Write the structure tokens for this entry.
Amino acid sequence: MNVSLYQAAAAMNAHARVQDLIAQNLALAGVPAARRMETSFESVPAGFASGAPWAPGNRFYIPRVSVGTNFSQGEITPSDSPTDLAIEGPAFFEVQLPDGTPAYTRRGQFQVDAQGYLVTYQGLRVMGNNGPIQVDPKLADSITITPEGQVVQGQEVRGQLRLVEFDNPHALRSLPGGLFLAEDPALVPRQAAQSRVIQRARESSNISPLHEMASLLTTLRLFEASQRVLQAQDERMGRTIAELGNPG
């Protein structure tokens, strides 16, 4: 078994995966509150040499790429809309999916629908401590939201935004549209204690296009290096076969 061929091919697959994620990051760089996808490499056992008994020397390793989400704070910029909200701190807004499942987002680009519910740009209802936040749609411009997340319209308190934090947000599953699911039973949302809401503001993505372009060039060079290793090993095997097949 030519281990170098498998290792080079696995490295090419891993670097191709990284290139796809960099392209995804670049596409999301201008999306409010988008989160950067990060990659890391590790060596994992590929198995045993074919037909050989177990022994330390029979095991070989191949590179594998792992993907995670960077939850660092994005830049907060002013907005003219009273329903544009940003979070300073690690908390998430809780929203409700169409099937009733709770989801979490940092993208506070909200609006008031015809029924007066505060909804995301996708139309998902924003949750409060006692259910969806509902206001008078005719007076949408008079909404005031305190740093603690209390929603006030005129002199009436309409609800309290449900802001939650997680001990390990990296275990959240990412969904399209800047949403996250807490599918792991160990992920229990708790009331935010280290965060505050900023009204008339938006959080930018934490993705730097310049950094992504530099990473893309580096990954491309590594892909090409692995490709050269694979080609060299293939040529070496070809010469070996030709020489063994023609002993004269």
Summary: The helical segments are 3-28, 209-245.
